Amino acid sequence: MRYKKYKIIFLLLDSFITYAALKYSFYFVNYARNVDYTISDTDLMKIASIVIFSELIIFKISGLYRMHKLLNSYYQFVVVIKSMLVSFGLLIAILFIFKHPILMLRREIVASFFILLILFLLYRILFVKISLGYVLKNKIIGSRVILIGADNRGCEIARELRNNKYSYFHPIGFLDDFKESGEILEGIKVLDKIENVGKYSEKFDEILIALTNVSYNKLQRIIDTCRRLHRPIHVISDLYRIVPEKLEVEKFSGFSTFQIPPITGFKEYTYIILKRIIDYTVALVFVILLLPLWFIIAILIKIDSKGPVFYRAEVVGYKEKKFVWYKFRSMAINKDDSAHRNLVKAEAMGLSNGQKLQNDPRITSVGKWLRKFSIDEFPQLINVLKGQMSLVGPRPVLPYEYELLDNWQKERFAVLPGLTGLWQVHGRNRVNFADQHVLDLYYVRNRSIALDLEILFNTISVVISGETGV
User: What is the pLDDT, as a whole number, of residue 357?
Assistant: First the structure.
């Protein structure tokens, strides 16, 4: 049985425990104090809704419904305390704003906080871990996994899964192009060649790709083949080492994986609509608010050097179509760009560590300040309003950068380019050329409103800190 069904049970249990703790803590404290005022069922429901909503949001964001987090007692302890503090802080703030009489029940509120905290710690750390351990050990729940790659790494993972009696994942076979069908490795049979993965789609629930000594292009082709089966895909590869280095990723029985969840048509359509609404609204508000600042910046640029206020460049974006990209001009005009072209070529060939040009003679005095705080990027809000860009997404590329891309890197053009993205907030100019594309691909395959908001909030802190612009 798949674990997904049990996530709903945990969610319902979290909600029930919260409501029961609030109800009976108010009742018992009131009874002990022998006071006249008691909380009504309507008010109790309002309080419970606020606390439950904030708790579940924090639990979801913190990953407390993921298998490896549910089995981590220390992590659950920290998140439960954090969620209780946030939930009751929000509750008190709302009660104060609306001057609700429940605020008079200070002892009841404090008592409900500690009762709920104790119950959650007992339930989450003891009951959940013990009961989940039991069902995993007895294989009541689990996910059938097919392993793509039967070399040393694939065998290591298979051995770990077979020896771990609490493993949620149950390997059903290997697919490998260099092993004989029928061969037994670590007690698991080699079923077929990788290209025939579709023949076994009814026998597995998830796919684990654990290939070594494989190129980006070949790995991408294998991933594309697997994606057509609409199953969750986990990738363990040195080619994607930048992902667990920079991001908190899903764990696959202790191994850090580059995960590619299946996306349904309805989910993708809903995401696109919500994303466009957010993009247009935020861009319009910021353009209006920043107009006075834009006027000041325009004057400074004109005073500092000759040339136009805006830099316009033709770049490649969504579906590999070209559009005109706007930035505040931060370089002197008629300057040779051969240094940048050579740097990009060196990065694409793996001959550079991803550092930006140092002491670039093209950058003006005002331009250095604009770039330090990424202010030169503000005019791209116009591109967002025109529907050519999004707030979050892979960066658009210049035509000579596009010519250097391999096929696997061109998946970035499946979505609108963005003002900011994963590699801009997780490394900035310290991420090399290939790893930038890996992080962009991770975004493309895992895009969601939650991930977009996380990147936007991280971008704000990066910009305020004044790290080197992109």
Answer: 53
